[in-house]
Amino acid sequence: MRPLTLRLRRRELVCQQAVELVTDYLEGALSRSARRRFEAHLAACPHCTEYLAQMRATIELAGRITPEDLTPQMQDEFIALYRQWQAGGGDQDQ
Amino acid sequence: MDDDAELTQRLRAGDEQAFTALVRRYHDPMLRLACSFVPSLAVAEEVVQDTWMGVLRGLSGFEGRSSFRTWLFRILVNRARTAGARERRSAAVGGSGPAVDGARFGSTGSWSAPPEHWTEAIDDRLQAGKLADRIRSAIGELPPRQREVITLRDVEGMSSSEVCLVLDISEGNQRVLLHRGRSRVRQVLETEFGRLP
Fold this sequence. Notes:
The complex is a heterodimer. Chain A is mainly alpha-helical. Chain A is built from five helices and no strands. Chain B has two domains: 2-83, Orthogonal Bundle (Rna Polymerase Sigma Factor, Chain: A); 102-193, Orthogonal Bundle (Arc Repressor Mutant, subunit A). Chain B starts with a helix and ends with a helix.
């Protein structure tokens, strides 16, 4: 049987693999051992730590996109749509 | 969402303002989502209108077993798929490249061209506004299925299970699409802002 340290070493992540695991990590989809390996890599790698921070920032920025408001014309169209539906007796799907 | 629950209740009671409030809240994300299924903005707008008509007609049958938002987006996706020429989702994920260009790693797999730093600049409000604009267009340029997942997850703020329900995809597929999409958007931001002073 191979010595434990050797097996662990062999399974160490490299950066190129780590960046592919970022989403699974953030989604909580990594197994416990995979998560440990990922975190061990981060602890030793400032670039991948920065990369993870950038992915978090990307998500955060996407969440800041606010919906574009309706133009007055579009708003009128939807009001017309509503009134048309009501005038039809509020017809319903079967 | 509690807000939605209250608005749908008022809508059932025939409150026109509740309708416009819901339209105002959801029109933009609905249109963005519809655009990824159909070939033109005009068709996407029709799909959105058609969806709202479906909401009005189906409201009395909506039992609140899912949230209003889930129900609404499911109607939208169904109609958009019918309207679009795009076939039902299969295994293809689109844009299957790696998260980061392989040329940026050395032969051992370690970074040879590590990420440029840019997150510090986000604290600046002005900068954040500019980034949000850039991120919006970066999302718009993603392959359709990645765009759908990012729009619902990260822009609209849905949970992964809600997204799977709306788009009728598996959790695993959702994660792959999310990963590709987010990786691509991060890269756009790095390219755009990594070299700022």
